[in-house]
Amino acid sequence: MTRPSSLSADKMARLSGMDTSRKRADAHSRKGRTRDALLAAFRDLFFERGYEAIRVGDIIARAGVGRSTFYEHYRSKHALYAESVGRTASRIAIIADAATKADDLLPLFEHFWEMRGKSRRLHTVTARRQLVRMLAGLLQQRLSARSTSAAEPARCAIVAFGLAEMLVGTIIAWQAGEIDCRPAPLTRELHGLVGAAVTALEGRV
Fold first, then answer.
1. Rounded distance, CA 134 to CA 89, Å?
2. Cα separation, 139 vs 137, whole angstroms
Protein backbone atom coordinates (compact mmCIF):
# COMPACT_ATOMS: atom_id res chain seq x y z
CA MET A 1 0.00 0.00 0.00
CA THR A 2 2.94 2.35 0.40
CA ARG A 3 4.06 2.20 -3.24
CA PRO A 4 1.07 4.07 -4.71
CA SER A 5 1.52 6.74 -2.04
CA SER A 6 5.20 7.03 -2.95
CA LEU A 7 4.39 7.32 -6.63
CA SER A 8 1.78 9.91 -5.89
CA ALA A 9 4.30 11.93 -3.89
CA ASP A 10 6.80 11.74 -6.75
CA LYS A 11 4.15 12.89 -9.18
CA MET A 12 3.17 15.75 -6.92
CA ALA A 13 6.80 16.81 -6.64
CA ARG A 14 7.15 16.82 -10.43
CA LEU A 15 3.94 18.79 -10.84
CA SER A 16 5.08 21.24 -8.19
CA GLY A 17 8.38 21.68 -10.00
CA MET A 18 6.59 22.23 -13.30
CA ASP A 19 4.32 24.78 -11.69
CA THR A 20 7.29 26.67 -10.25
CA SER A 21 9.05 26.67 -13.62
CA ARG A 22 5.90 27.92 -15.32
CA LYS A 23 5.53 30.74 -12.81
CA ARG A 24 9.15 31.75 -13.35
CA ALA A 25 8.68 31.71 -17.11
CA ASP A 26 5.53 33.82 -16.80
CA ALA A 27 7.31 36.33 -14.55
CA HIS A 28 10.23 36.55 -16.99
CA SER A 29 7.81 37.07 -19.87
CA ARG A 30 5.95 39.83 -18.00
CA LYS A 31 9.25 41.53 -17.17
CA GLY A 32 10.28 41.41 -20.83
CA ARG A 33 6.96 42.87 -21.96
CA THR A 34 7.25 45.70 -19.43
CA ARG A 35 10.77 46.59 -20.57
CA ASP A 36 9.67 46.51 -24.19
CA ALA A 37 6.74 48.81 -23.36
CA LEU A 38 9.04 51.26 -21.57
CA LEU A 39 11.54 51.21 -24.43
CA ALA A 40 8.81 51.75 -27.02
CA ALA A 41 7.36 54.63 -24.99
CA PHE A 42 10.75 56.25 -24.60
CA ARG A 43 11.58 55.82 -28.29
CA ASP A 44 8.31 57.45 -29.37
CA LEU A 45 8.77 60.35 -26.95
CA PHE A 46 12.40 60.78 -27.99
CA PHE A 47 11.47 61.26 -31.62
CA GLU A 48 8.56 63.51 -30.70
CA ARG A 49 10.30 65.79 -28.21
CA GLY A 50 14.00 65.03 -27.92
CA TYR A 51 15.83 63.64 -24.90
CA GLU A 52 15.95 66.77 -22.73
CA ALA A 53 12.19 67.34 -22.84
CA ILE A 54 11.29 63.84 -21.61
CA ARG A 55 10.42 63.20 -17.96
CA VAL A 56 10.00 59.87 -16.22
CA GLY A 57 6.34 60.74 -15.71
CA ASP A 58 5.92 61.07 -19.48
CA ILE A 59 7.45 57.64 -20.04
CA ILE A 60 5.31 55.79 -17.50
CA ALA A 61 2.16 57.51 -18.72
CA ARG A 62 2.89 56.50 -22.32
CA ALA A 63 3.84 52.93 -21.33
CA GLY A 64 0.88 52.52 -18.97
CA VAL A 65 2.93 51.42 -15.94
CA GLY A 66 3.47 52.77 -12.43
CA ARG A 67 6.46 54.79 -11.24
CA SER A 68 7.60 51.97 -8.94
CA THR A 69 7.49 49.56 -11.89
CA PHE A 70 9.70 51.91 -13.90
CA TYR A 71 12.34 51.98 -11.17
CA GLU A 72 12.26 48.20 -10.86
CA HIS A 73 13.67 48.11 -14.38
CA TYR A 74 15.68 51.33 -14.79
CA ARG A 75 17.49 53.66 -12.41
CA SER A 76 16.78 56.72 -14.55
CA LYS A 77 15.68 57.87 -17.98
CA HIS A 78 19.37 57.91 -18.94
CA ALA A 79 19.62 54.17 -18.24
CA LEU A 80 16.60 53.64 -20.47
CA TYR A 81 18.18 55.81 -23.16
CA ALA A 82 21.43 53.86 -22.91
CA GLU A 83 19.61 50.55 -23.44
CA SER A 84 17.69 51.98 -26.38
CA VAL A 85 20.89 53.22 -28.01
CA GLY A 86 22.61 49.95 -27.14
CA ARG A 87 19.99 47.96 -29.01
CA THR A 88 20.50 50.07 -32.11
CA ALA A 89 24.28 49.72 -31.82
CA SER A 90 23.96 45.94 -31.47
CA ARG A 91 21.94 45.73 -34.67
CA ILE A 92 24.57 47.71 -36.57
CA ALA A 93 27.57 45.89 -35.04
CA ILE A 94 26.78 42.58 -36.73
CA ILE A 95 28.20 44.17 -39.90
CA ALA A 96 31.64 43.11 -38.59
CA ASP A 97 30.69 39.44 -38.14
CA ALA A 98 32.21 37.04 -40.65
CA ALA A 99 28.87 35.36 -41.31
CA THR A 100 26.98 38.61 -41.99
CA LYS A 101 26.05 39.31 -45.59
CA ALA A 102 24.95 42.68 -46.94
CA ASP A 103 21.43 41.35 -47.44
CA ASP A 104 21.24 40.51 -43.74
CA LEU A 105 21.58 44.22 -42.95
CA LEU A 106 19.10 45.48 -45.53
CA PRO A 107 16.00 45.38 -43.26
CA LEU A 108 17.82 47.53 -40.70
CA PHE A 109 18.84 50.12 -43.28
CA GLU A 110 15.36 50.13 -44.76
CA HIS A 111 14.12 50.94 -41.24
CA PHE A 112 16.66 53.77 -40.98
CA TRP A 113 15.41 55.08 -44.31
CA GLU A 114 11.78 55.00 -43.18
CA MET A 115 12.72 56.86 -39.99
CA ARG A 116 14.74 59.56 -41.77
CA GLY A 117 12.05 62.19 -41.16
CA LYS A 118 12.43 61.77 -37.39
CA SER A 119 16.17 61.17 -37.39
CA ARG A 120 17.15 64.74 -36.51
CA ARG A 121 16.80 63.79 -32.83
CA LEU A 122 19.75 61.44 -33.32
CA HIS A 123 21.90 64.11 -34.92
CA THR A 124 22.66 65.99 -31.71
CA VAL A 125 26.21 65.85 -30.41
CA THR A 126 25.19 63.93 -27.28
CA ALA A 127 23.12 61.31 -29.10
CA ARG A 128 25.74 60.78 -31.77
CA ARG A 129 28.59 60.49 -29.26
CA GLN A 130 26.74 57.87 -27.22
CA LEU A 131 25.86 55.79 -30.29
CA VAL A 132 29.45 55.94 -31.59
CA ARG A 133 30.86 54.96 -28.20
CA MET A 134 28.56 51.96 -27.80
CA LEU A 135 28.99 50.85 -31.40
CA ALA A 136 32.79 51.13 -31.12
CA GLY A 137 32.78 48.93 -28.03
CA LEU A 138 30.72 46.25 -29.74
CA LEU A 139 32.83 46.40 -32.89
CA GLN A 140 36.02 46.12 -30.86
CA GLN A 141 34.75 42.92 -29.25
CA ARG A 142 34.06 41.42 -32.64
CA LEU A 143 37.32 42.58 -34.18
CA SER A 144 39.34 41.27 -31.23
CA ALA A 145 37.75 37.86 -31.68
CA ARG A 146 38.74 37.81 -35.36
CA SER A 147 42.17 39.48 -35.24
CA THR A 148 45.43 37.53 -35.28
CA SER A 149 47.58 40.65 -34.97
CA ALA A 150 50.21 40.85 -32.23
CA ALA A 151 49.15 44.47 -31.73
CA GLU A 152 45.55 43.36 -31.39
CA PRO A 153 44.26 45.58 -28.53
CA ALA A 154 45.48 48.91 -29.90
CA ARG A 155 44.75 48.13 -33.54
CA CYS A 156 41.29 46.78 -32.77
CA ALA A 157 40.42 49.88 -30.73
CA ILE A 158 41.59 52.24 -33.49
CA VAL A 159 39.77 50.37 -36.24
CA ALA A 160 36.62 49.96 -34.12
CA PHE A 161 36.33 53.66 -33.37
CA GLY A 162 37.13 54.57 -36.96
CA LEU A 163 34.46 52.23 -38.26
CA ALA A 164 31.92 53.42 -35.69
CA GLU A 165 32.46 57.06 -36.65
CA MET A 166 32.28 56.18 -40.34
CA LEU A 167 29.09 54.13 -39.99
CA VAL A 168 27.21 56.56 -37.77
CA GLY A 169 28.36 59.61 -39.74
CA THR A 170 27.38 58.04 -43.05
CA ILE A 171 23.96 56.95 -41.78
CA ILE A 172 23.26 60.43 -40.39
CA ALA A 173 24.38 62.14 -43.62
CA TRP A 174 22.26 59.72 -45.64
CA GLN A 175 19.17 60.31 -43.50
CA ALA A 176 19.71 64.06 -43.81
CA GLY A 177 19.67 63.80 -47.60
CA GLU A 178 23.38 64.49 -48.11
CA ILE A 179 23.85 61.09 -49.76
CA ASP A 180 21.43 60.33 -52.56
CA CYS A 181 20.86 56.58 -52.71
CA ARG A 182 18.44 53.89 -51.65
CA PRO A 183 19.06 51.50 -48.74
CA ALA A 184 20.38 48.57 -50.80
CA PRO A 185 23.42 50.27 -52.41
CA LEU A 186 24.33 52.02 -49.17
CA THR A 187 24.19 48.73 -47.30
CA ARG A 188 26.42 47.03 -49.86
CA GLU A 189 29.00 49.82 -49.78
CA LEU A 190 29.19 49.99 -45.99
CA HIS A 191 29.39 46.21 -45.74
CA GLY A 192 32.25 46.24 -48.25
CA LEU A 193 34.12 49.01 -46.41
CA VAL A 194 33.87 47.20 -43.09
CA GLY A 195 34.92 43.95 -44.73
CA ALA A 196 38.01 45.63 -46.20
CA ALA A 197 38.95 47.06 -42.80
CA VAL A 198 38.58 43.68 -41.14
CA THR A 199 40.67 42.05 -43.85
CA ALA A 200 43.44 44.60 -43.30
CA LEU A 201 43.25 44.09 -39.54
CA GLU A 202 43.60 40.35 -39.96
CA GLY A 203 46.82 40.94 -41.87
CA ARG A 204 45.68 39.54 -45.17
CA VAL A 205 46.65 42.62 -47.17
1. 6
2. 5
